[in-house]
Amino acid sequence: MKHLKLTKRLQIASIVVLIFAAVNLTVFIQSERQQTGLNNSLSNGLGNHCHFVNLECAIELDGQSINFSLSRAPTIEERIDVVISSENPFELEQAVIEGVNMYMGTLPVVEEAVAEMTWRGWFMLGACSEPTMQWRMTIKFKGQPQPAQLLFTTTF
């Protein structure tokens, strides 16, 4: 009799563990699908986009590699420096940042120093009610029909 009660308890515990694992797997898969959909929608079909990894990303623009780097992880209400560099000369027309998952207006990237193959600037991100905020930096290069889009996230 005790053996049957113990077996029944083990069966119930196993079922609970399986249900818990299935729910976690479903949440993970759904999260991955949403993130992939978000990444696709962030690029708006443009070929010139990248996500920052370890504060850096690079794009290929007319056969020219252009590198982007941030001075620190993007944080709200703090100055973040950005450097754009290439092995060939380039000119920037405009650099702005916009919120993706919440309207935050258009934030300028302020030009600080310009050289033939390096552009330096800085920006500050506003605080909002979203705990995780997706951002898109749009950079227009002179003579290029499509802008570069750099994607990053902040959390608080």
UniProtKB/TrEMBL annotation:
Keywords: Membrane, Transmembrane, Transmembrane helix. It comes from the Bacteria. The chain crosses the membrane at residues 12-29. This is YtkA-like domain-containing protein.
